Amino acid sequence: MVRRFFLSKLYPIFLNLKAKACLIVGGGKVATRKVKSLLESEANITVISPEVTDQLLNWYNKNLIIWKSKQFDLDDVKKYNLIYACTNDDDLNKEIAKFAKRYDKFVNIATSLEDSNFIVPSKLERGDLSLAISTQGKCPVLAKKVRKDLEAQFDNQWDKYLYFITNFRSRLKNQISCVNKRKRILNEVVRKVSPDDMIEDLDRHDLEVWVDDIIKKLSEGKKL
């Protein structure tokens, strides 16, 4: 019999961190990876560390991040929304997490689920399509394997497919006033049109003509 040890069940969520104050304590490889992902989210990032990697220094020189070349002080956590403790000192990381949680901050230590109150899932992206995979922090290596397995299933055609579906949904709302009819038509399209049907280099005009033709057929009760 396998015994299971769970912390509180983690709630899956996508956060809008644009212009949010985020703190990275540490200046090594782990800190660099965290900063890279936060830059993609357009967060306001501060790094506190006496020394940083060349990549972090490069981002600092380009004014993409704030770098405070100093030792960390516990009061540093107070003005930040989200905090990563990435130093090579486990005791310091735990102290940072303890103090951050005292002020109801979101804090993560990559090596300690028990001391974190959020984790970052393994992620697969195809344009605006994002798939997040998590084992609730129990085995990140397994989450990465699942992501790799999904990469073949969700290829780059899904980026085009999402663009098509988004365009279709928008034009459908403009042309059909009945909500139930819109739902029926959209469900039919998602069921019948697949990513493999996406045409390479389809320009916007041709896409709109194709979408309007599908809407016309389905609104008249015809089959695709």
UniProtKB/TrEMBL annotation:
The lineage of its organism: Bacteria, Bacillati, Bacillota, Clostridia, Natranaerobiales. Its EC number is 1.3.1.76. It comes from Natranaerobius trueperi. This is precorrin-2 dehydrogenase. Residues 126-153 form the Siroheme synthase central domain. It catalyses: precorrin-2 + NAD(+) = sirohydrochlorin + NADH + 2 H(+). GO terms for biological process: siroheme biosynthetic process. It comes from the Bacteria. Keywords: NAD, Oxidoreductase, Porphyrin biosynthesis. The keyword Translocase does not apply. It holds the Pfam family NAD_binding_7. Pathway: Porphyrin-containing compound metabolism; siroheme biosynthesis; sirohydrochlorin from precorrin-2: step 1/1. GO terms for molecular function: ferrochelatase activity; precorrin-2 dehydrogenase activity.
